[in-house]
Structure formats: structure tokens, C-alpha cells
Amino acid sequence: MTLGNIDKNKSTAEPIVPIDFTPNDENRPGINLKLGPIHVVLLVVGLVFGFSGWFVLTAKSVFVEVTPITAEIDIGGGVNIRLGQRYLIRSGDYSLSLTNDGYHMMTTELNVTEDQSQTHSYQLERLPGVISIITEGLAGARVKIDGVDAGTTPISEIPVEYGEHRLVITYERYQDFEMAIDVEGRGVEQDFTAQLEPAWALISLATAPEGAEVLLDGEVIGETPIDAEILNGRRSIVLKLAGFKAWSDEFTVIAGEDLIVPSVILEPAEGLVFIRSNPSEASLTVGGEFQGLTPIEVALEPGQDHQLTLFKNGYLSNESLIRISPNEAKAITISLEPITADVDIVTFPSDAELYVNGEYRGLANQTIQLMAASQQIEIRKEGFVPYSVEFTSRPGIDQAIRVNLKSLEQERLEQIKPEITSAAGQDLKLFNPSAFTMGASRREAGRRPNENLREISLERPFYFGIKEVTNSEYRLFDSEHTSGIVAGTTLNNESQPVVQVSWTSAALFCNWLSQQEGLPAFYQTVDGEITGFNAESTGYRLPSEAEWAWVARTNDSDRSLKYPWGDRLPPPEGSGNFADVTASNYLGEVMFNYDDKYFATSPVGSFEPNYHAIYDLAGNVAEWVHDYYGAVGSTGIEIDPMGPELGQFHTIRGSSWSHGAITEMRLSFRDFGEEPRDDVGFRIARYLE
Q1: Residues 600-612: pLDDT tens digits?
Q2: Whole domain around residue 344: which residue ranges?
Q3: What pTM was estimated for this model as a whole?
Q4: What is the CATH number of the domain that holds 330?
Q5: How far apart are CA 457 and CA 440, in angstroms?
Q6: What is the pLDDT of residue 21?
Q7: Which of 184, 488, 539, 685 is the most buried (most CB within 10 A)?
Q8: Residue 344 and residue 399 in contact, taking contact as beta carbons nearer than 8 Å
């Protein structure tokens, strides 16, 4: 209904008048749908044909192949049409059930793809078969199927999966039975019968005399005569009868093949004799055949004589006869007579003790009877090294043993190494020093007031460095050290003596060497500073001034050397590295008529050694020694002096490459200092342990 326009300006509204409604005439033409039965049928048929046509056009041809072919097929989850061996099914997933008598039911998923024609194959598994097993003529045999125990026979109606299986049946004293069986499955009952073969044979044994005990593989099975079932294989049989030798043999037994052993004639048993000798470990022969060393047990044939012979080195041989009865056991002891000879024992010291084979035989100086055999002779005395020798005396020959025992101190000294090598590679030589006079007389040209004459007695053996410590050796201790340069000439080559080292640094180097070799430190330290020393220590140290002077100045004469080469200047060619013409532009005082080929330091050991085979005690570099510096006077004989207890400076001994004057060139020259210098190095020493 449409509303007309309303004039909103009018003050009054027109009334709404209702209109009359009259229905159309029933007979008026119009649509009137009425379906009869025939029409409905036709409609349904049309719809069916239409759906069928659509289904046929969109469905796929699917072949469900099943083994066995008699299986029933059930496809669920949608419309399918079976056409012979094929099905019309639209693509998609369906449930599939396959059943057949005698087979396991299969339920799976059928996936129909978009392929117009497709095949899906399936294999049903057979149900287990039912088998029974018996062993003919016996029961209780053990049955295994494919290695799994199935029980003992008879076995009735046990399920076994379809297919081929390995059947093994075992029974004591029977050969194993093995066979392959085919199980039909599908619940089919099958019977299997096994015929087991015996695994033994019958053996007959007889002996003369009868009644011997029979042992089969070590177990008693009866007495002879005997018929016994013996399992096949290699078997050992032993026959035993009192008064007779045991009889034994081995046989190969074949199952089912009886064995008759010819009658065994047993031999009378041997007698046993246990033989001891005095002394023991004598050699024994019976009838000339060696049997062994006493004590020994031997078996002898009864009823006859046997010759026994005993012999041992240093003893007369013994021969005897013996007879023994069957099964008899006896023991005998035979004493051997020693063969002796007289031996003179002469020793020094005369009160040493004599031991023979560890047995005390009195004081050594005597004539003693010794067996003519190897004897261990030992001479002992407290404080001396024992003497031991293996000695064989000979009758009828005059013999003597003469021994000069070594004292323990002699032995110790003989074992001492004449030379040793430190952990840094320095070679040191051992000295057993003597008394000497240190210093210089007042009449000696060039003498200084600090060179007072002193009587020295060195009693402690000591090792003394053959050469001065080199740069390379010192850098094992201080890798950053440099010896520097003089007038453009290096002092820093590895084989040159280390310089620019303070006394303290040299002492600390000695302690480091001791630590490397596990020796007790000679110098006592606190925070890297030397606070004292342990005079009893055998660790490395600087030589004492007295030791240095003894090595430098003594020879085979009674007087001390002035210079290593003699008493006059200049030195012979090649005597050492001194201030020579090569350093004339640098040093104030040089020897112009001497040329050692080196401006500054030379490699250590470049020149001839002194009388004691020690290098560079004059020239090359002066050397720090252990002692504090002091002008010490004569105070009687000084034993192993180590210098003043306190001091500001330490002593320096020897001339160097920078010395060419008579005062400094002398071996008695003494200098002092504390700080590093380019012409001062050091060498090492240590006491004998």
C-alpha cells in the first residue's frame, strides 16, 4: 500500500474510509497443481536414473584383489556397486573388511584415488595349524621348535604358525633328531613322529686277573669283566687293581657299533722308594739313567736289583743296590762324604771375620779346610767394605785367599765422580785441596796492602767450575738479562762470560741451580735478598776466596804462582784475554807487545787452562767470590775460611780483559765491589756431598 503525499500545512486531516474486499470467484482461471500416482512414479524413476547416471559418470573402477580369492569383501562408508570382480566407487576413504575361513580377519582402510581404474591387493594370513609330536618307543624327549622349548613328548595339539619350522628333539643317551616341518595352518591338525637313534655302543672289557676297577672318563662304572653301554665319542678307560700297574687307553666309540676289547693282562705294580741325601740336591741315577735331584721319589720294578748312584760337586759319589716288592713303599737316606782341601786365609786388618756360605768360621787369618766345591767366602769387619768371593778349593794344591779390606771412607771416595755437570750445563771438577799460603810477600812487585800472607788449610773436598758462567747459561735463570756493549763491541754472545751481574744476582743464580737439582740452598734469602748462608749445605755457591786462590796459584811445587804462566810480564802468546793492543784506543794501560785477538771478552775456554785444567782464572773477566771483602791479616792456620761475617762489599778475584798492569795481572790481586761491571763475571762451586 502506498501512502499519498500529506500536506503538512493543512490544519485538519481527511478521514480514512475503509474499502470493501471481495474474494475472487472460485471458478476464475489460475494455477492448480495436482499429481497423480503415475506422476510420482515417473518422478522417482527419473530421479533414480539421473542419480545413477551421475554416479556412473563420477565413480571409479576399483578391483579389490584378495588372496585367497574366496575371501568375503565388505566395503563400508559410501555407495559402491559391484560389477563382477570390480566395484564402482567414488574417490574417497572407505572401511574394508576381509574374511575367510581358516584365515585371520583383516580390517583396513580403502583409499580410492582419482585414477579411473585402480587395483588394491591384500593377503590374508593363515590361522595357526595344530600339531602333535611323539617319539616312537620312548617318552619324555625334549622338543624345541625354532629353538623355543615346546615341552616333552608326547606333545598334543599345540598351535604353530603356518610355514616351515625347525624341529629338534633331544633325549639322554640318544642322538639328536632334527627335521624341517611344514605347518599347513588354518587350524589343520598334523601329526609328526620321530624315531630316535641310540648314541651309545656296547663295550666288553675283561682282565687277567679279574676284578679290576673300571673308570670311564674318570668315573667308576664297575669291575671287570664288564659289558657297558658307552656314549659315542672319544672316551678314556682306566683299569685299576691293587698290586698291579694301572692300565689306561682311549677309544673312539661309534654309536651302534659294539666294541670288544681283547683281554687285558695287568702287570705287577712297581714299588716306590723315597730317597733323601745329606747334603740335599744330590744328583740321582738309577741304572745309569738320571732321575733328578734329592729328595726324590722313584718307582722301581719289583723283584730285581737296582743300582742307585748319588753324586754332588765337592763330595765322593755313592753307589748302592736296592730291591723292592710290588706295591712296596720305602724311604732311605744316603750320606755323601765331602772332598776337602786346606786354604790359607790372609787378611788386612788381621782381626777381620771369616764367613763360609754365610756361616761364621772365626777370625780370618787362619788355615781352613774347604770342600772341593764352589764356596761363598766373605771377609767382614766393622768400618770396612765387606769382601766376598766364590771360591773352589782343589785337593793337593796349595791355595790362599789374600784380602786387603777397604775402609768405608776409601770406598766413598772411590765412588765420587771426578767431574759433574750442573742443571745449566756447567762442568765442575772435584778437588781434594791441601794447605797453602795465600797472599803476597811485601817484596813482591805490584803488591797491594790488602794482600796479607795467610796460612790456609782446605779440608773439605769441593767441586769448582771449569769455566766461567756464560750468557746462555745465565739466561736459563734470567731470560731478560743482557751483558751490554763496550765501544761498539758486544758482550752479549751466548758463549761469552756473563757480565753486568751483581754479587747478589750471582748468588741467587746458585740457589736456582740447587733448586733444579733438589739440593739444599746454600744462600739464605728473604724477599730476594741474601741474609746469610748455610756452611753445611752441599748446594751450589760462589767459590770461597781461599778455594779460588788454591785452584789458581797451586801446582806441583811448594811455592805459589805469581802469574799463571810464570813470574814475568808480558805473558807468552795465548796466555789469556788481557788489555792488549786491540784495546789501546779505549783503555788507559795496555800491553802493547801482546795481542790476544779480542777487544773485550772472549768465548769462555778460548785459551789454555791452568795446571788444574781450569780456564780463564787470569784474563777474560774478573770473578765474584763468596767472601765479604776485608783486609785480613795472619791469625794462624785458617781452616776452610769463608771470609768475614759481615761487610759492605764482596771480594773480586782475578784480572780481566781490561787489565794490563803488573798489579792487576798478578794472581794475588784482590778487588772488591757490589754492583755489576762489564769486566766482572763469576763461576760456581759446591762442596762434595
Answers
A1: 999 999 999 999 9
A2: 340-410
A3: 0.49
A4: 2.60.40.1120
A5: 17
A6: 44
A7: 685
A8: yes
